[in-house]
Amino acid sequence: MNTGKVDVLLGLQWGDEGKGKVVDVLTPRYDVVARFQGGPNAGHTLEFEGQKYVLRSIPSGIFQGGKVNIIGNGVVLAPDLFMGEAKDLEKSGHPLKERLHISKKAHLIMPTHRILDRAYEAAKGKDKVGTTGKGIGPTYTDKVSRNGLRVGDILSDFENKYAAHKERHMKMLAALGWTDFEGFEETEKLWMEGIDYMKEFKFVDSEIEVNHLLRENKHILCEGAQGTMLDVDFGSYPFVTSSNTICAGACTGLGIGPNKVGNVYGIMKAYCTRVGSGPFPTELFDETGKTIRDLGHEYGAVTGRERRCGWIDLVQLRYSVMVNGVTELIMMKSDVLDSFDTIKACVAYELPDGSKTKDFPYEIDNVKPIYKEFPGWKKDMTKCKSQDEFPQAFRDYVAFLEDYLETRIGIISVGPDREQTIVL
């Protein structure tokens, strides 16, 4: 942790790495937790004191008393979903209105954005991306094309602004030949209730607030959503999200200079998963993949969709470490592999022309993973309280990962609970 700098925490794979739990574990060290990109299409699941919480838009530091939590300008926010999430948390006794600040420059996901999301996916047919249908992509599209509606717009002449944006969307839907508006009126009514509810929170110029806090030597943790391989520039395009999920996204999503970034914590699973369409070189279609899914409870926190499962991909991870400037790795769900006789790790790709590479290529649709095998550790690690209790085979696996990725692993998770987190 560096005084006068922000630390960044993000996912290194295709999302779902377990970022929420790690933020919750790390937040005691920080004064501020700030979310810098993404929308309610990603869920961070946290478990502690016998309760499970799924956060979609609210930073994971909300459970720690006395912390400032900021939703940054790079986030897209759905007022109705935000209201539902926030009210659930308030019921559990967390005083959100005291702790949570929202950037005026964050863009609003309108009800018509969700319809546009469905219409665009339908138009793609078999080439659909596999979005969650939450309207994220169309909202970022409006932002980039300078047609967005922002949180700060709530403060003046909002009804007219909303009506103009809605009318524009309706013309776009008509041009697409879209006719399915079932449930729209109810959704719109709830959305407007969400707008009123949001007015009870503190709207801020988050870039000014964050930099003021840095000058006061506050310790700030920037929290990303999704994962590096879903980054709109560096992910497995076009099967990506619509924002920059990498470390640089913290600069643009919160308004901080690159020289203000300190530690970069990169989170990975001991294996690999992805949701939705798109290439996935180490995907397992056999019983092993199913076993990993069942043992790891690999189902989407927001959608409930089955996650595709495979062995860890070190070519992909090395690329993620590079583009993020990762200073420390955090490995999640190590315990899921406890019962396997053999563990595999992809250490290179064979390209269609027969050559081999350790560099992540432009296209990964037709690469074949080259694996290195390790003996399984065959021990229940969920009871481990310190690294001294790790079996030797697991230590060897960790040492190999650190050597290949040229980055230290600083935290290892051996279960879903906050307590099942071992700092090395």
List the helices and strands and how they pair.
Elements: E1 6-11, H1 19-26, E2 32-35, E3 44-48, E4 51-55, E5 68-71, E6 76-77, H2 79-91, H3 96-99, E7 100-103, E8 107-108, H4 111-124, H5 136-144, H6 158-175, H7 184-198, E9 202-204, H8 206-215, E10 220-223, H9 248-254, E11 261-269, E12 272-274, H10 287-295, E13 308-310, E14 312-313, H11 314-324, E15 328-332, E16 342-350, E17 356-357, E18 368-375, H12 392-405, E19 409-413, E20 421-423
Helix pairs in contact: 2-7, 4-5, 4-6
Number of helices: 12
Overall shape? globular
Helix percentage range: 25-40%
The radius of gyration computed from the alpha-carbon positions, rounded to a whole number of angstroms, is 21 Å
Arrangement of strands in the largest sheet: 9-7-5-2-10-1-11-15-19-20
Residue-averaged pLDDT, rounded?
Answer: 92
